[in-house]
Specification:
The chain has 282 residues and is an alpha+beta fold. It contains ten helices and seven strands. The relative contact order is 0.14.
């Protein structure tokens, strides 16, 4: 199956995380902490958010590290869905009040190093519990943090008018290691909260940076389809644009008009129905 992670490919996610973290930390040091990075978060809030994720992930892979010191968070995380992630983020930021950029940059850098060290001698398909009672492989966990750094680096850079490259080879890891990983191992209640269409919808995602990934929405759940199954929809994409689109940084209209996301197939109109279920926080 195209989504299976080979041992030869395990170096991709750690290398991408190390490189992206270095770029993000350099950028974060240079952005004034009070700069509004999004409609709701300052640059310091954004940095605190990413640092909290890295610290949470260290705790997931290293049993000697305790959970984040937030009352009730451990009970709440298995109940999170895509649509309530923002509420969980707000809870974390209310309790983790440090906003000194120097301290947060240092903390994030150390935790990325600790995370990479804890994963170094383990297999890419070793699974840890994640939000919404999902199960994510270690390669997918690292890919998710890469995506967080890329997205929030884009927010910071945009706020101060600086370039922020989103390399396709790194962006593609989110779909092929994280999303495919939680589909394979079980995404729990993460995608709950919407009414799924009754008919089976098969979508094939293809880019120049990974083998095609064919997914089927059936019975309210997203699963892998056979690689040779005829898709209803074909999505040819630039990985950076797809991720920015899925997380609300680039509109669907812009992604389509630039040709960086192309939708074809015998029933392309089914894609919005598929994406109502197979969605990310935007």
């Amino acid at each position: 199956m195209a989504s299976t992670i080979s041992s030869d490919g395990w170096s991709g996610a750690p290398a991408a995380l190390a490189e992206t973290a270095d770029r993000f930390l350099a950028l974060a040091r240079s952005v004034p902490p009070g700069t509004m990075a999004t409609a709701d978060w300052t640059a310091a809030d954004t940095l605190a958010h990413v640092a909290a994720i890295a610290r949470l992930y260290v705790g997931l892979v290293d049993p000697t590290v305790g959970p984040l010191p937030i009352p009730g968070l451990g009970e709440r995380l298995p109940l999170v869905t895509v649509d309530t992630v923002a509420d969980a983020n707000d809870l974390v930021l209310r309790h983790l009040t440090e906003r000194d950029p120097a301290l947060l940059v240092d903390r994030l850098g150390r935790d990325v190093d600790r995370l990479l060290g804890a994963c170094a001698d383990r297999g890419p398909d070793e699974v840890v519990p994640w939000l919404g009672d999902a199960r994510v492989p270690l390669a997918g966990l690292l890919a998710h943090l890469v995506n967080e750094l890329l997205l929030h680096g884009w927010d910071l850079a945009r706020a101060v008018g600086r370039p922020w490259p989103v390399p396709a080879r790194d962006a593609v890891l989110f779909l092929h290691l994280f999303l495919a990983g939680v589909i394979r191992h079980g995404y729990g209640r993460l995608l709950d909260g919407v009414d799924a269409p009754r008919r089976r919808i098969v979508v094939r995602f293809a880019s120049a940076y990974a083998a095609p990934l064919t997914l089927a929405l059936a019975g309210g759940r997203v699963r892998f389809a056979a690689p040779d199954e005829r898709p209803d929809v074909r999505v040819r994409f630039d990985p950076a644009t797809l991720n920015l689109m899925m997380f609300g940084r680039v509109s669907r209209a812009r992604a389509l008009l630039t040709g960086r996301v192309r939708v074809t197939g015998p029933r392309p109109w089914l894609l919005p129905r598929f994406l109502r279920v197979f969605r990310t926080p935007s």
